[in-house]
Amino acid sequence: MRRSSAQGVLYGQTVANVAGIANSDLECMDILHLEGRVTAGRLAEVTGLTTGAITGVVDRLEKAGLVRRERDEGDRRKVFITVVPEAAMKIGELYVPLQQAMERVWSAYSEEELRLLLRFANEGYKGVLAATSALKGHLDTPPEKRPDLKMRKLPRRP
Length: 158
Prior knowledge:
The protein is 65% helix and 8% strand. By secondary structure, the protein is mainly alpha-helical. The chain has a domain of 90 residues: Winged helix-like DNA-binding domain superfamily/Winged helix DNA-binding domain (Arc Repressor Mutant, subunit A, Orthogonal Bundle). A three-stranded antiparallel beta sheet has the order 1-3-2. Helix 1 crosses helix 2 and helix 3 packs across helix 4. The longest helix is centred in the last third of the chain and has 30 residues. One of its GO terms (molecular function) is DNA-binding transcription factor activity. Pfam families: MarR (PF01047). This is Transcriptional regulator.
C-alpha cells in the first residue's frame, strides 16, 4: 500500500510536470474537481492551506487556464473557484495510461472480490480521514499541552 501510494504521488508529480504546473496546484485542482464549485475559503479548509496560499494557487491555476473565478449572482462579494472543463479534460487524458493499467488489473477479479476491494478502499479512506483529523488536532493543541505521539505496535497477524 505504501509503495502504491508513493507511486501514485510520483505519477501525479509527472502529470503536473507535463501540464506545466506544481504538484500541489494539481492536487488543489483535483480537489476542486471533486468538490465542485467552491470558495477559496472552502478550498483552504479542505486542503489545510492558508487563504493566502490558496490565493496563490488559484492565481497560478487561473493563469494556466485551468480554473476560473466566478462571482456569486446572489452576493457579488462572494467568489467561487471552478474548474475549466476543457482544461480538466486535457489533464484527464494524462491519466489514461494509469486508468488502462488499473482496468487490466481489475479485470482479473471477480465481482465479489471487487466489492471487497471497494469496501477496503472506502474504509481505508475513512481511516485516513480520521487519522488526518487527529493529527491536525494535535497541531491545534498548544505545544505544552500536546500528548506524546507514541507509536504503539500493532500485533502481527498470523
